[in-house]
Each structure stands twice: as structure tokens, then as C-alpha cells.
Design brief:
Length: 176
């Protein structure tokens, strides 16, 4: 992929301390770099079927909103810290109004409230993605390994018409 090498205190600590490290993404997607020491491995993804024991009752308001119109676009920011959330919130609201689409936004590490009188935007906190994503028409996410796997798994499910858009992968996330 010709991505630049990332050097930092944590990665150097892992390499020089002989501390075991497991990268949880598919080696088919990003193989173990040749320069990684032996105690560092790319082990593949860990997927938990959360929907099997899922209680939807805490999400009754979200469920009602999902059922009240066309499938929304899921927008997830994962572990990204948004420096200017007010600007991003307004951008999301303006875009949904201009495109006349619905979005469900999971902001995670940065508190963002996108809901307004238009009814096009809905906030969601932590919830099982294997429950929420099939109810969406598209997935736009931060590029983390876990969301990448989930998004692609729904893309490959022929029962769903879910599209996936990936921001930059892992350490190459855009800073907003």
C-alpha cells in the first residue's frame, strides 16, 4: 500500500521491551511488516456476535426513528478526537439537508449532538453494530480495523444493499 512508516514512543517501547503485541486485523488486508520484531503478530480480526443476546429495549427511540423512514447512512467516528466538533456537526446537518438523506451518527470519543428539528439526523451511543448496520443503507466510518471488518462483512452479505465508505486506515486517520 506504500504507506509511510509510523514511528512513535509506544511502538518503540513494544519493539524494544520484547512485549508481545497482537494487531487485530486481517493479514490478507495488511500483512505483518517485515521490520516488526518476532513478538509482534498480525492475528486477524475478533468478531463477537452481539446481536444474539441483544436487548433492543434501550434503543426503542432509535428503533422507532429507523422504522419511520428510509434507511439512514451510518456515520461513525470511533476513537477519533474531533478538534472542532461544532464545525463537523454543522457540516453533517447541512449535507443531510442538501442531499435529503437520513444519518445516524455515532461520535464515540467526541460528544456530538446532531439531532435537530429536521428529523434527518439521529445520535446513537454504544450499540451492537451487527444490529444497527443492517438497518442502514451505507456505512461511513473512521477506518478502524473493527469497523472495517464489520462494514465489509455487511457489504458481502447478499441480503443487504449496504455500501461502505472507508476513511483512512488505522494510524492514518484524518484529523478533523
Amino acid at each position: 500500500m506504500r504507506l509511510p512508516h509510523v514511528y512513535g514512543l509506544i511502538s518503540n517501547f513494544v519493539a524494544y521491551s520484547n512485549m508481545p503485541f497482537s494487531a487485530m486485523w486481517s493479514p490478507s488486508f495488511v500483512p505483518k511488516p517485515r521490520e516488526w520484531p518476532p513478538q509482534c503478530e498480525v492475528v486477524g480480526t475478533f468478531v463477537i456476535n452481539q446481536v444474539r443476546e441483544f436487548d433492543p429495549s434501550p434503543f426503542e427511540e432509535l428503533t422507532a426513528w429507523l422504522e419511520s423512514g428510509p434507511k439512514p447512512i451510518f456515520i461513525g467516528f470511533g476513537s477519533m478526537v474531533i478538534k472542532k466538533p461544532e464545525h463537523l456537526i454543522q457540516t453533517i446537518k447541512d449535507a443531510t439537508k442538501k442531499a435529503n438523506v437520513r444519518v445516524v451518527v455515532q461520535s464515540s470519543w467526541t460528544a456530538m449532538d446532531v439531532e435537530d428539528e429536521s428529523g434527518l439526523c439521529h445520535n446513537v451511543g454504544p450499540c451492537p453494530h451487527d444490529w444497527l448496520l443492517p438497518q442502514c443503507c451505507a456505512v461511513v466510518h473512521h477506518g478502524g480495523a473493527g469497523m472495517l471488518v464489520l462494514g465489509l462483512s455487511f457489504l458481502n452479505d447478499c441480503r443487504l444493499s449496504c455500501r461502505v465508505s472507508i476513511s483512512l486506515f488505522l494510524a492514518h486517520q484524518a484529523v478533523l
